Amino acid sequence: MILFAYGALLDIALLLKICPGSRTVGRARLLNHRLAFPHYSNSRGGGVSSIAPAPGHEVPGVLYEVPEAEVPALDAAERVPEGRLVRLRDLEAGLVRE
Question: Which of 18, 39, 78, 93 could disulfide-link to 48, CB 3.0 to 4.6 Å?
């Protein structure tokens, strides 16, 4: 799976703790979105990053290739079952590889 990472997952060391088979593909930008902090993390003592639609804005990030077998661990770490991370397949249209 190709992952567009922003926020904390820009730190490859953090991603490798969750998904040790991941590799960096390159830099990218997500067009027409902005960085947002809609959730509070007690363990981190601050906001948790997300993205939100925002015409004319962009979010810088990194593309990683994550082995399919490690995606469940990533989902758990990013709290996908709780709705904290939503996969939006149509985001690819706004993704620009650098």
Answer: 39
